[in-house]
Design brief:
single chain; globular; alpha+beta; 5-stranded antiparallel sheet; Phosphoribosyl-aminoimidazole Synthetase, Chain A, domain 2
Length: 302
């Protein structure tokens, strides 16, 4: 069997149960398979949060893309997962793997993009690694931070009856916006300060892949109102479901909070839309429409 026959989620299902957690198992609030690893500390009221992510040439960016934008995206991808957990990022490590023929000026511009992105969220780049390769270029960023125990949000807390909301607009990001997005950390922090958010994740692989991941983790079903999906200019419903790279937040919250949430959001974030797109329901009586798939690693053409 090849990776293309298995796909990312099924591969992880086979690998993750065998990771050597040992005596530290009880220290994990969330491990591999969620947006971030969330680890209990011996003292204090905060969880330690860790995330690593990468961008790969010809997968996450084209070779002709601006190095400044590539650096920006490489840093912002793991920070978007911090937003999904409502965590505060603090430190980052950057690993660069590049062919020896790569122009030094290009590398310097890449790191300017990394620094700009880190400074946006007051993250300190404290180290990393470099290595050579025959190609393609890979930039991996690992981020460490914290989240208060009473504000940590994972994928698995969704409840039957919850409303499903998304921030911003979906679809069309692959045309350029995927290189210049900003993670919804401020929005996520506001949400968990003012509401009980049951489950949340960022939309990186598309609603058609990411929403099923959330409902599987929460052991519920879902019903989506496709006609209510907030579309980017020029995008169609299929783009919003299948393209990915939107990096917006998808979250579940009690319907009893709906009115207060919508009023408060409009006042706090007047330039960013918040849209109810459906609800969670009992898994035993799912009324789902089958969603087209989003981006699935190892199964995309190329």
């Amino acid at each position: 069997m090849k990776l293309r026959d298995l796909g990312e989620d099924r591969l992880l299902d086979q690998l993750l149960p065998h990771l050597p957690l040992g005596k530290t198992l009880k220290a994990f609030e969330a491990g591999a398979g969620d947006d971030c690893a969330v680890v209990k500390t011996p003292t204090g009221r905060n969880f330690l949060v860790l995330k690593t992510d990468c961008v790969v040439e010809e997968v996450h960016f084209m070779s002709e893309a601006d190095a400044l934008d590539i650096g920006w995206k490489a840093m912002m991808r793991p920070l978007s997962d911090f937003a999904a957990t409502s965590a505060v990022p603090q430190f980052a490590l950057v690993t660069l793997v590049a062919p020896k023929e790569t122009e030094v000026a290009w590398i310097k511009k890449l790191y300017r993009g990394l620094r700009r992105a880190a400074e946006r969220f007051k993250v300190s780049i404290v180290g990393g690694e470099t290595s050579s390769t025959r190609g393609p270029i890979v930039i991996s960023v690992s981020v460490v931070g914290f989240v208060e125990k009473n504000r940590c949000v994972l994928r698995r807390g969704g409840k039957a009856g919850d409303d499903l909301f998304v921030t911003g607009r979906l679809g069309g990001a692959t045309k350029r916006r995927h290189l210049q997005f900003a993670p919804r950390i401020a929005e996520s922090r506001w949400l968990t300060k003012n509401f009980s958010i049951h489950a949340m994740m960022d939309l990186s692989d598309g609603l058609g892949v990411d929403l099923p991941r959330l409902v599987r983790a929460s052991k519920v079903g879902f019903k989506i109102e496709l006609e209510n999906l907030p579309l980017s200019r020029g995008a169609k419903i299929d783009n919003a479901i299948s393209e990915g790279e939107d990096y917006e937040l998808l979250f579940a919250v009690s319907p009893g909070d709906r009115s207060r949430l919508q009023r408060g959001w409009k006042k706090k974030f007047p330039n960013l839309s918040l849209t109810r797109i459906g609800s969670l329901n009992r898994k035993s009586r799912i009324e789902n429409r089958k969603l087209p798939r989003g981006y699935v690693h190892f199964q995309q053409p190329g």
